[in-house]
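Slide 14.
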Amino acid sequence: MWLFFLWVIIIALTLLLLVTTSIRVRRRRGVAFFHPYAECRGGGERVLFLSIQAVQEMDPNLPIFVYCGCKTLTGVEILEAAKQTFKINKFPRPDNIHFVQQPSLKNLRFLLEPSTYPRLTLLGQSIGSMIVAAAALWEMPADIFIDTTGFAFTYPIAWICGCKVISYTHYPTVSTDMITVVKSGKEAFNNSKLLANITLFRRLKVWYYKVFAWIYGVVGQFSHLVLVNSSWTLNHIVALWNVPDRTHILYPPADTKYLQKFAVDRRAPPRCQPSSSSSSSTNLVISLGQFRPEKNQELQLRAFARFLRNHRQQQQQEKRPLEEKKGKRIDDKNIKLVLIGGCRNEDDQKRVKNLKHLASTLGILDRVVFEVNASFKLLVEYLAAAHVVKQPPYYNFLLLVCFVVN
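Slide 15: predicted structure.
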């Protein structure tokens, strides 16, 4: 029996050697970006296309490859959508940007979907990303491999294939915050009610997270250059990957000159969405974040519904409507919650549909605006008109935009 397993190991190692050797031999001069969801319009995609623009400004003749699994749009259409969404004037050489969209990548992208793995989701997605990266490198190997999605398990694959690996991390796959939530026994997006209520399951999940965090730290060390988007992410990545000498903050770029067009004296609701705001006195509460479970837009809707209910009760109890410090009346009919975010796939689209149904059930559908895959121009217009903005703790770029426009 042991001879059989020995032969299996020898055959597997031989195949691995042949595949990596083939990729190394065929590797060509160029920069490859691993971004399977390049057609989406979130903050990660903004970093991707501005990075491509920056590379081309340094060397327009350097071939650029984007590993993308989009089935509905061509590379030209994705590039044009990115220019419109993120206000990118032009790419020095758009003809030198190649989207690697072979059937193997399109058919394997399901391996990255959370819905594919009802249990052990992080581990399943990470192993899936290794398979997708191997397929991408087989189709179009390049000298430099840049990951802008956070799939750290792809780094050893690229390293074995002879690539220089650069990573740009927006948010660590696993963090001490996630482990703390599980330990606390609180129900959350990553901690179901069953796990939260049973001590044994909770301990097993903490152990699983700790083991995964250790493996995550090992694969992260295969990156030759580690870039992060904030000091919050920096602290977590340094703690997990333990390569402080290779880890640097690279803040997402912001065109402040463009943002200044939407100064504080232009507080009217977005011009391109007049139906969303009936008058200039509308009070907008903006929530920015992709439509994912961890953003917890469901809780935001419930909180907003409670706020409106409490506001009406307070108005009824007082002799006159609640007033601001300046003496301006606050009419709850002019208070709207605007949820702005991107959708990556069908799961996210279903999530938006469920959120709309929840808003209807709560009786606040007419007070909630859903802006899916909004352009950067529309985003800034909303922020300029906003009275309250809810943002993630690590998203420094949004803070900068708010400071400039509002």
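Speaker note: DSSP finds 15 helices and eleven strands in the chain.
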